[in-house]
Amino acid sequence: MSAPAAAPAADASAPDQTFLTDVLAGLSGDPKSLPCKYFYDAAGSRLFEAITALPEYYPTRIEAAIFRDQAEAIARFVGPGAVLIEFGSGNSEKSRVLLDACGEYVGALAAYVPQDISGPFLETVARRLRNEYPGLPVLPIIGDFTQPVTLPDLPPHRRRVGFFPGSTIGNFGPGAAAKVLRTFHDAVGPGGGLILGADLIKDGATLEAAYDDAAGVTAQFNRNLLTRINRELGADFPVDRFRHEARWNAEQSRVEMHLVADAPRTVTVAGRRFDFAEGESIHTENSYKFSRETLHALAAEAGFTIETIWTDPREQFAVAAMTAE
Ligand code: TRP
Fold this sequence. Notes:
alpha/beta, seven-stranded mixed beta sheet, four-stranded mixed beta sheet, binds tryptophan, methyltransferase, L-histidine N(alpha)-methyltransferase activity, EC 2.1.1.44, transferase
């Protein structure tokens, strides 16, 4: 899973106050919105995994192909004896090709540091990796990648290279994305590196299909946010009366996900009333798409210089290697 940080689970008897405050604030806005980090409860995380395997959802497959095709070049960018830090590592699946390639082409890493919000899961993954990569120090750290990173005790004087795949960077607005990259910059330090996966601008039909698949999995994923709000915050959204919509906003270079009311509706959340006009939407997520130019600009804003951008032959997805100034 490369999903952004999951919020801790709660139930209606002890509603998570931050979750409640965020939901009430989002629904009070004009236009209405909800924060995307709350997608990832247990059901949401499962649905997200299913999205990554959908025929329409090309990013996961194309990024994996770039990692495979460019494994040697990426390993050389990481360099011998470096510390590899994956931000929001989930099951660490995407790091394996890098760990293998480093072993094969440039020699062992000094350490692999997976960072994730879920502590117990992180330990399970770390144990498995230690078995599969004997001799590789696996030093997990619990944390939210939007916050400053506290690194474990690392071998001194080693190059540090961050890894942030999956175009998760695209789920942040331009200012917030630069801020996230800046925290990675501070974690790797001057001379350190970052390998960033980023989805590229393409035709609107391909983009909208990727976020609105024929099997309806992404629709389920989007609506699950309302199911979660009903369950954990005692709300009464008529979940199947909100239609999933993916809209390519070319001007802002982002795919927007919305939940659109089918008719005038009134919803109560923790005793507060929210009215929806027919066709009124809740904006639940953005997925920004990049060009080479906007990637260079974003990197520069966070104190990085891009060395190489690897893409697939059709230029659908990019993997950028950058150096911290
Ligand atoms: N960051 C990826 C993207 O924007 C994965 C992702 C996040 C996603 N939220 C999603 C994919 C919602 C589909 C639907 O593409």
